[in-house]
Amino acid sequence: MLASATQPFVKAELKAALWDMDGTLVDTEPYWIAAERTLVESHGGAWSHEQAMQLVGQSLMHSAGILQRAGVNLEKREIVDSLSAQVIDRLRIEVPWRPGAKELLDELYQSGVRCALVTMSEGPMAREVVANLPKPYFEFLITGDTVSQGKPHPEAYLAAVERLQDTDPALTVDHCVALEDSVPGVASAIASGVVTVGIPHQMPLPGDPRRATWDTLEGRKVADLEALVAARASANMPAAAFLGQAN
Fold first, then answer.
1. CA 213 to mean position of chain CA atoms
2. Are 121 and 104 within 8 A, CB to CB?
3. Element at 177 (helix H, strand E)
4. Predicted model pTM
5. Residue 73 three-state SS
6. What's the confidence (pLDDT) of residue 245?
7. How far is CA 198 from CA 40, 117, 152, in A?
8. Cβ contacts of 213-220, under 8 Å, gap ≥ 24
């Protein structure tokens, strides 16, 4: 944690970038929405854009419960497996990268900044996306099937920080920046204490001084992330009270 009356000062250094996947690294939300609509309609129901937006950034099991209430007569596990299979099929045809994502990933890799993927998608899908990257950008993956509580709970981000600390015990949340596009994802990252950047995509993000907000990753550099880490350190306040400075 940062310096306070009782805590030591933490050097301002960017050590890790924690990436959300759907909507941040890749634009898979249209794939998910199409799969949801197909599934609901196959059970005699109707699926609106407004309903689909309720699922953006949520855990798959939470989303499965909403789909059950929309008329899908399957167990939650069956719903998750059906949706995931449809989206993976689309990914095998085309991976829709978000603007600037691969470029920033590459610069982070070249700069020696560690990267981890923190997604509520399950392992098979996350591995499908990562396999299409030209280099081993991600040190490890935290996926929805490896945590007990999905976003907006902070478990996934806290698990990522703990994994990073295995080889760097001096690393803290103040050395890590999360990149997120959804309301649940941003809430998860902020609750974990990591420096948080919201890059809204399918849905707007409500104003929140605890995060930075970028319109896009296009043109963003490692220096921009370093500036956020430095801003938190210079603010000299606990992580949860950090005020996002970048726009």
1. 14
2. no
3. strand 176-180
4. 0.83
5. coil
6. 41
7. 30, 16, 14
8. 213/244, 213/246, 213/247, 214/246, 214/247, 216/99, 216/100, 217/24, 217/98, 217/99, 217/100, 217/101, 217/103, 217/104, 217/179, 218/99, 218/100, 218/103, 219/100, 220/100, 220/104
